[in-house]
């Protein structure tokens, strides 16, 4: 859980922005809610390496260097993340780590970096994709510091099949999110069938959050409504994705802050078992009903309405795995409204307005 500069700021990053973001993590309670990593994405470096072959921070954006930024973030009890790329240049055209993996990993370690996002632009064609991640995976293991390895190859080479073997702790397996409802819907629908590969140790990263961007920033393409941000955040939590905030947290509304700090949703996301949700038969597409086993015999149920009209699907306990012959019933609490639905024996209907969702936590009792 953390924040990444890309979605809102793109190239417009600076020491001041990062320090203010760190201050706000503490003051707003995001840190207490579990958000930990502050990650500087692409566009932080000078265009040339130093004479001894090291990456150099942009002197205008980061006049005191990266160790200074890192010390500041650590002084707040937070962790520091940076970005590089497996190819010949980063996606935005800056120096990249191909054939500099070991010197760069050591440099990041010297700067006190705790997290490395590792992108895939301009990958040389004569080395296979997985090998580029094995190289950095090995460099990070040998750099003398614990650094979380966040792979980002957008799903190339069926990344979910081999990425765990590179030592990565999380992996992007889609193209970039943009600040629109269709973007987060399409990412969710494409990833749900692949979540069996995501598990403790190495998680499917469904991309940085667009929650709270409201059409402003680097990946803004129209924006979403607050109800749509609720759907997006709830979907990411059901998928146990890393939660990397992407909006300008210094200027967000209380409503957005409360959503990002929602304890029930964060608990679903961070559940230690990270079991994938399963979609209820016949519903994927327009509306989507997801059911998920949590640890401690709890269950999460999400009803997501992507259509332009109200939906009222029936939730049959039979479809969840609880037939009448079980002698059991279920009780649910809706996370946003607190509304309770108790002692359901067979089915109940859920009314969900257009472009909105209902999220339940449930338990099973004997009748
Ligand atoms: C790629 C990544 C994005 C971001 C940009 C930076 O597109 O997928 O998340 O890091 O590069 O240039």
Which sequence of strands runs across the widest sheet? 7-6-5-4-3-2-1-8
Characterize the biggest β-sheet. Answer: 8 strands, parallel
Please write the CATH class name of the largest domain.
Alpha Beta
| CATH homologous superfamily annotation of the largest domain | Aldolase class I
Specify the structural class: alpha/beta
- Total separate domains: 2
- Provide the CATH topology of the largest domain: TIM Barrel
Write the layout of secondary structure elements.
Layout: E1 2-4, H1 6-9, H2 15-27, H3 30-33, E2 37-39, H4 65-75, E3 79-85, H5 101-110, E4 115-119, H6 129-141, E5 148-152, E6 170-172, H7 181-191, E7 203-205, H8 226-238, E8 244-245, H9 254-260, H10 263-270, E9 278-279, E10 287-293, E11 299-305, E12 314-316, H11 317-320, E13 328-334, E14 340-344, E15 347-349, E16 356-366
Parallel strand pairs: 1-2, 1-8, 2-3, 3-4, 4-5, 5-6, 6-7
Antiparallel strand pairs: 9-10, 10-11, 11-16, 12-15, 13-14, 13-16
Alpha-D-galactopyranose binds at residues 6, 41-42, 90-92, 119, 152, 176.
